[in-house]
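::Amino acid chain::
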Amino acid sequence: MRRIAAQLLGIALCAGLLAGCDLSMTEQRKLATNSPTSLWPDGTTARPLPAGVVAQGDLDRDAAARPPPPVTEALLVRGRERFGIFCAPCHGLAGDGDGVIVAHGFPAPPSYHIDRLLAAPAQHFYGVMTNGYGVMFSYGDRVPPHDRWAIAAYIRALQLSRRTKVADVPDVAEHIR
């Protein structure tokens, strides 16, 4: 009998203690972001980052807003190399949308030589690489911004090469014949 009474007393004591616990976080004391406060000398709740903090994550969101770098031979060479690695499997080496993935049943991407993409600025290609478009996923975390600009410049060179005659490029015409 005493054992049962002790157990009931223990249960009642635990229930009484737990009754005072409110797990709701809606009534907690907190400071709203960027609100004024007398807690800190500068009077704001926003705190500066400690010295030595290393930023991580996607830090270059505004890269598309910056103008593209000047088109140089080195930039085009880099763009061709990166295009072959990241773009050619889907878009094909000439940008016709006939990459190896099409042979394996994936939908064909658009050719870079259609009117809509011929009229698109280089920033369009940079943005598509950064954010993805349609079934193409984002390459923003796989390709650095400088390489995305290089690829965009190379895509423009591919487009121009399709519409240029050998006679229009006299230095090259001598070596081809």
The chain has a mean pLDDT of 84. The chain has seven helices and no strands. The domain at 71-176 is CATH 1.10.760.10 (Cytochrome Bc1 Complex; Chain D, domain 2). The first helix runs from residue 2 to 19.
